[in-house]
Amino acid sequence: MRMKNNPQLAHLRKNYTLAGLNEQQAGNNPLxxxxxxxxxxLEAQLPEPNAMILATSAKNGKVSARTVLLKELDETGFVFxxxxxxxxxLEMEENHHxxxxxxxxxxxxxxxxxxxxxxxxxxxxxxxxxxxxxESQLGAWASDQSKEIASKDILNDRFKELEALYHxxxxxxxxxxxxxxxxxxxxxxxxxxxxxxxxxxxxxRPNPESLxxxxxLQP
Length: 219
What we know:
26% of the residues lie in helices and 32% in strands. It is of the alpha+beta class. The longest helix has 14 residues, at 30-43.
């Protein structure tokens, strides 16, 4: 079957008018600005504002991207949790440079982040795993993430076996599951503006000990 082009695609367009962003509003620390924008996304009751696109690449240069959830944020960076043996885990092991994207369309905002990932301490991963819902804990054991499986029934059966195995017991964290921290080197804040004259403020720093520099980019 031949796929037809949808003529409506070329005409999908929105005029952004909600707010602006200048250098004074941005301040001198992008993590503080991120925290402010994130609080505003919570106040606006956006659906899953902590959802972020994570882009990774292997040594061969092929890039992959997927959505993960931000679970911790402090002055050192952005923390999420996943399977170390998944495709993204293996790629991050080969290449520590990653990118994140937060897209909050309701607020006409986007934040792009480029940085270096590192595993968090095992104790910190243990603490987070312990407070996860029990079903999520079992799921981390049941799924050999990113690996091919013959049927969904096999996965469901494995889950039930683990459920029986740990009945009435605490569930330990799998050794191949834990947290990563993305230490930012670049953060760009995008605020939609009328006529596609968007505001783009970008922060750079060569290493975590350096001060942030700030620049405005053309839209």
